[in-house]
Amino acid sequence: MKIGIIGGGMSGLIAARDLQAAGHTVEIIEKSRSVGGRMATRRINDGQADHGAVYFTVRSDELKEEVKEWQTAGVVQEWFVADPYPRYVGLNGMNKIGKYLAEGLDVRLNEKVETITAKEGSIVLTASEQLHYDVVILTAPIPQASELLGGSSLNLTQADQKLKEYIFEPALVGLVELNENIQVGEYGLLDQDLPDGILKIVNNEDKGISKNPILSIYMTGEWSEEWFDREDKALEEVVRLTIEQLGDLSIASKQLKRWRYAQAKQVFKAPYYKLEQHPVWLCGDAFLEPDDPSGHTRVESAYISGKRLAEHIIRFAQS
Ligand SMILES: Cc1cc2nc3c(=O)[nH]c(=O)nc-3n(C[C@H](O)[C@H](O)[C@H](O)COP(=O)(O)OP(=O)(O)OC[C@H]3O[C@@H](n4cnc5c(N)ncnc54)[C@H](O)[C@@H]3O)c2cc1C
């Protein structure tokens, strides 16, 4: 089958890889200039900073096995162990994991899918040109996916329309480059007893991914919601709260990253969803197996979702 996958984050990359390995022709269409999605890393002068997923944990045997291979390939390393799971990070930033997974896959970067149509037995995506597939997988965060579906001419049933009810919270992340390094927690991470509004502070140099000390300051969902549309003031406030916690800082540069859809507020209790009247499936971090041991969206839930959907489509193609 010819399969189009909208989105080159963890779930889309894993689905693509497994479907291609099973003999299908797969193409990923990604609106950004790089793969990785919310596993994101930004270059800042000579250094770099993760500004999406900070690290990932592993509860499933499948991801455990995979991580061993990623470690051998020099893509992932253990950061530290806590309660009781190791925290894994991309060796040179989280988005290197995405880049590694995309090797050997057909990816169309900088192409946003604007509409989805059903036409003469195929599903047509409108991006820079019309792309025809037998099956389409949509991996954007559910609110973005519903928006895309809502603006398309597919027949959506009442069950399909219910996807609109899934809400994600935003995240604001301050990226503050320092002139000199500063101790942030034992491993370069502070995630407790922080001023109201700050969720985590990470020092990317101590995390081992940057030549320069760059702080990634992750704000809570509630704070980010309140400050989302006040970009300049929000950055000043992030810096003020950080100084309140860490003391005076010698700042070389600062910027703010805004994620409109960072984490799902409520999750879908199945690893994927199929539109009732079309060969279009949704998957991603908010689609959890019913017995998911953590219950929240994360890199591992995106991985498992992509994997389960690929297994399902491989069976579907054989039936
Ligand atoms: C600030 C922040 C901190 C986080 N911290 C952690 C953490 O510490 N640990 C952890 O495990 N998880 C964390 N997460 C969550 C983790 O990053 C996600 O669960 C995971 O990366 C999601 O993968 P995904 O494939 O489901 O979606 P995504 O990574 O969002 O991939 C979807 C892709 O679809 C693309 N796309 C969307 N619409 C279109 C379109 N119309 N056309 C083409 N492409 C499109 C997007 O550009 C994106 O690349 C964090 C997330 C954020 C934002």
From TrEMBL:
<dbReference type="GO" id="GO:0016829">
    <property type="term" value="F:lyase activity"/>
</dbReference>
<dbReference type="InterPro" id="IPR036188">
    <property type="entry name" value="FAD/NAD-bd_sf"/>
</dbReference>
<keyword id="KW-0456">Lyase</keyword>
<dbReference type="Pfam" id="PF01593">
    <property type="entry name" value="Amino_oxidase"/>
</dbReference>
<dbReference type="GO" id="GO:0016491">
    <property type="term" value="F:oxidoreductase activity"/>
</dbReference>
<protein>
    <submittedName>
        <fullName>Deoxyribodipyrimidine photolyase</fullName>
    </submittedName>
</protein>
<dbReference type="InterPro" id="IPR002937">
    <property type="entry name" value="Amino_oxidase"/>
</dbReference>
<feature type="domain" description="Amine oxidase">
    <location>
        <begin position="88"/>
        <end position="314"/>
    </location>
</feature>
<dbReference type="Pfam" id="PF13450">
    <property type="entry name" value="NAD_binding_8"/>
</dbReference>
